[in-house]
Amino acid sequence: MAHTAPAWPEPAPLDPLTAPVPQYGTGSLADLLPTIVAGQGLHELATGMELAPADRACVFLVDGLGWELLRAHPEEAPFLTSLLDSSCNGTGRPLTAGFPATTATSLASVGTGLPPGAHGLAGYTCQDPATGALMNQLRWQPWTDPYVWQPHPTVFQRAHAAGIHTCQVSAPDFATTPLTKVALSGGTFHGRLSGEERMDLAAEQLAAGDRSLVYTYYSEVDGKGHRYGIDSDAWRGQLQYVDRLAERLAEQLPPRSALYITADHGMIDIPFGPEHRIDFDEDWELRAGVRLLGGEGRARHVYAHPGAAADVLAIWREVVGEQMWVASREEAIAAGWFGPQVDGRVRDRIGDVVAVAHADMAIIASEREPGESSMVGLHGSMTPSEQLVPLLEVRT
Known about the structure:
By secondary structure, the chain is α/β, with parallel strands linked by helices. It has helices spanning 32-38, 67-71, 78-82, 87-90, 103-112, 116-119, 146-149, 155-161, 178-184, 195-206, 220-228, 233-251, 284-287, 309-320, 329-334, 344-347, 370-373, 384-387, and strands at 56-62, 95-96, 125-127, 134-136, 165-170, 188-191, 212-218, 257-262, 268-269, 277-279, 290-296, 299-304, 324-328, 353-357, 362-364, 377-378, 388-389, 392-395. The protein has 18 helices and 18 strands. The strands form 6 sheets. A 6-stranded mixed sheet has the order 6-5-7-1-8-18, sandwiched between helices. The chain has a 4-stranded antiparallel sheet with strand order 11-12-14-13. Helix 5 (103-112) packs parallel to helix 9, helix 10 packs parallel to helix 12 (233-251) and helix 11 runs antiparallel to helix 12 (233-251). The protein starts with 31 loop residues before the first helix and ends with a strand.
């Protein structure tokens, strides 16, 4: 009697509803500054996040310093590690960055106090609905009016208007960038080259008002991670340096101050090779029906030719659905990936299809994105390695 082989079911694609949505309204980066200034008197900005009030508050944002990375490197960061239990008002828990977990989106969330669906910087690159072209929201290319693209006031502007001494201390090159204008402006910008200068000036500015809001930033933890990976000596050296900077700032805090050390996203190293890096520019299936590829390797906005969106969604689910959460624009919005609501002006910036990495993989584009495709460390997705960031606290 002949025996037939069992018919094993095809693996089902990941359900977009199983993606871990950021904690908008209670524990995301967008809630940080509104909660701080609510404690300084701007009660109308209060969110569901809880922080003890402080007359003087400094936010030190370290680009790329994810929660899981910090916890994995206690020897390189003894001071920051000693503060882990202080995270999120002494709960010892992390914040969530927001989606996608990428610098332009996160800095806009920090500065405006709004989730991506409201401020509109919904990815590393997104479609400009007015032109149909990709807009790089970190480099602001091609040029578009910053205040049309992001019209909401920043928390810094609102704090300054309320009489709170407000400033930003960062690299001089950032003083007049469009991203700074729409996300981080308000009060006075102070450009300083070295990390030590920034820490010293941040402490000085913190003491300059009875109520103060100071923001300072350091980028090279992220930079070395992209170039060399988070398993490199170069990355570890940057973590050691940031640990010293944070301690230097903490030692200079004036009375009635709170220092919050956080980050815009984490990072994960993605091995090179076709099993971990699918090249869109060489994959005819993924290219079928696609007009534009936006986002970044682990958080893709996919824009279809007119009438092809359903087919593109079906193909992407079939090809990468076991490794990525693949959703239609409507599904991603309904699931709350970009926040509780998405403004009308923002809706068409989101891809017809949104593909978000769950596995240790990325969809690169070697021809159209050669620099990004060569990076070792990547981010953007909703996995804990990328999404979770610290909110360490020092008080005087």
